[in-house]
Amino acid sequence: MEKLLRIVIKEAVASLYGADAGDDLLQIQKTRKEFEGDYTLVVFPLAKISHRSPEQTARDLGEYLAREINAVSGFNVIKGFLNLTIAPAEWVTRLHEIHGEEHYGFAAPGPDAETIVIEYSSPNTNKPLHLGHIRNNLLGFSLSRICAAAGARVIRTNIVNDRGIHICKSMLAWLRYGNGRTPASEGMKGDHFVGDYYVLFEKKLREQIEPLVDAGSTPEEARENAPLMLEARQLLLKWEAGDPDTVQLWQMMNSWVYEGFDVTYRALGVEFDRIYYESDTYKIGKEIVLRSLAEGHLIRREDGSVWIDLTADKLDQKLLLRSDGTAVYMTQDLGTATIRYNDYRFDRHIYVVGNEQNYHFQVLALTLLRMGYDWAKGLHHFSYGMVELPEGKMKSREGTVVDADDLIAEMTATAEEMSRELGKLTGYSDAEKKNICRQIGLGALKYYILKVDPKKNMTFNPKESIDFNGNTGPFIQYTYARIRSVLKKAEETGVTFAAGEAEKVIPNAKEISVIKLLNDFPALVTEAASELSPALIANYCYDLSREFNQFYHDYTILGESDENLRSFRLKLSELTGRVLERGLFLLGIEAPERM
Questions:
Q1: What pLDDT shows up at residue 397?
Q2: Cβ–Cβ contacts within 10 Å for residue 508, how many?
Q3: Residue 349, class by beta-carbon neighbours within 10 Å (0-12 exposed, 13-18 middle, 19+ buried)?
Q4: Does residue 395 have a pLDDT over 50?
Q5: Tell me: the pLDDT tens digits for 58-117?
Q6: Of 442, 588, 447, nearest to 144 (Cα)?
Q7: Domain 2-86, CATH number (from 3.30.70.1170, 3.40.30.120, 3.40.50.150, 3.30.1360.70)
Q8: Of 193, 355, 557, 574, which has the maximum CB count within 10 A?
Q9: CB 125 within 8 Å of CB 255
Q10: Which class is domain 441-586?
Q11: What's the rounded Cα separation, in Å, for the pair 391 and 461?
Q12: pLDDT tens figures, 274-284
């Protein structure tokens, strides 16, 4: 619709003032809700062409468009703003146009499409995925679909943190206290099994810290010098040196965790195109650091540690290699970024990581640029807020996190309980009930998390998220299922889309409201990709569902006797369902055919 307005406004300017109006002068936006109209033209730039006041220019243009252009049925002027009302028949024409677009709202990548690498998940192999990981995975997966729908080439990646002191803690705890137990012998998922030993390490470490503090050490000194911590550091040195027994233990415990991760990823419905492992990338990172040190970009201190000085950039000095030669997280990320650029020659690399790592990614980009990697200008940290429960923050060391598997199971169970209470599972087989409850539970979880501005911290309340009314995933899913039910009944009764002319139907205000929202979908996908905001898609799906339900409540569809009007409403319903399905797809949410 905006394209049409640009064309007719240019015609008006040429006819009235004998001048060409470039696109840069045509500022068109949707009219604010408190004013009458559909689109607003900002007239101030055009006053330079008309040599008249903005108000008079707006009046000239409004009168011309209302008189000469059938698409414009009315206008009003508020200072230098021209509010235009689109004729009802034009919205019907637009509906028919949209309905004929097979991939409406989704753009295919062209020859000059941007290549974007998106990293999300980034789990540690010393613990299972938890609620924080869920927000990370859902944001990253949704962003990958949104950017692809906007026409980019997207590569979805995961970096597994499979090495480091935290991994050695779980390994050491199993060596000391595991007595040969395995996930199979205990009947546990591998990631849960290994995570329990990480928690056990911290428990035993605290027992060693207490007497050291009583003897006069500070808590920080006591933690660093406790026998268990010293032994864990020795285990890390042995791993980096390639000690066969240590590497074999590491491989065995990591394999347990990977099997557990795969189960959770499948349940959550997220996927990756490529998985990287820090046990590989840290080696490249060390090579880069040592080469950059030889080139004079870095500093080696007396203890042998290697640092980069970023004080000129108003930051500080950052450790890149410890005095014993072992790598830190920054070293690993230097290697990972370099490998990925060599693999994909990306234009942008988006890291989906919580806002507690803002400084880390600022340092990463600056360090690579200092080392001469100009492509590091394309690194972008998608910084999102933390997710908490009503009772407060979670702590992995203390084992007080909300396990992802438990949460998924709880959401499914809650969906079943609420659906049963509302009588929505009557007439379904057990298999159908199980699948529908899974779809509803996960839809509720994903929508509740994705509808929030990703920059904000959020509190997740499982009970609040599952509601068949209000701004929830199940409400949108139910709207889609309702539309599918209407279309199925139409098919069963032989009602089809009539081939009537567009001008034979005059839509009412509620129908126009739905068409307006449908018309917004492609621009919204583009905006969501530009802003990196799944929340825009989520809240759009709610707005569209709400508008359609208001129309559905007030007007009959299949019972309409006028063939053209019935066909129009069926087409409106079918297209609404199609767009809702695509919107839910962008959020990683399934659209149930029945609910």
A1: 43
A2: 11
A3: buried
A4: no
A5: 999 999 999 999 899 999 999 999 999 999 999 999 999 999 999 999 999 999 999 999
A6: 588
A7: 3.30.1360.70
A8: 193
A9: no
A10: mainly alpha
A11: 10
A12: 999 999 999 99
